[in-house]
Write a structure and sequence with these properties.
The protein has a single domain, classed as HIT-like (HIT family, subunit A, 2-Layer Sandwich), CATH 3.30.428. The chain has four helices and five strands. It has a five-stranded antiparallel beta sheet with strand order 1-2-3-5-4, with helices on one face.
Length: 155
Amino acid sequence: MSAPSTGGAGACPLCDSDAGALVWRGAKLRVIHAQEAGFPAFYRVIWADHVAEFSDLSPADRQHCMEAVTLVEQALREQLAPAKINLASLGNVVPHLHWHVIARYEWDSHFPAPVWAHPQRECDTARETLVAERLPALHALMRERLERWADLGEQ
């Protein structure tokens, strides 16, 4: 059911590049660290084929995609203990299926509003740095869990 890109070369930034620091790549999707200022634990699960909507996927691919989102969320919760995890699939700016998986903290500049809203307060760079220092261990855990999942039939 996944359709190939119809936009041509250079039309889709998620087709043309990893669009962030690559954490893991499988046959059907990849996980990247988005490196968004003010949000040190902002990730995207990006479907490999160029499709715009979640419903464009087959039922098996939808389940596959959401299992990857779940594994990323679980790793974030275990390693960083955020106040909340935000999940979003918008696609208004880039119509290529991807899920945002974002660890949120009561001290972050936008909490409790969405990361795309106006800031509620100044950034807490000291706390952001503390979270950023924990990312190498988080990425290792994500890779380990995603690889184990892939070995169980991710293809």
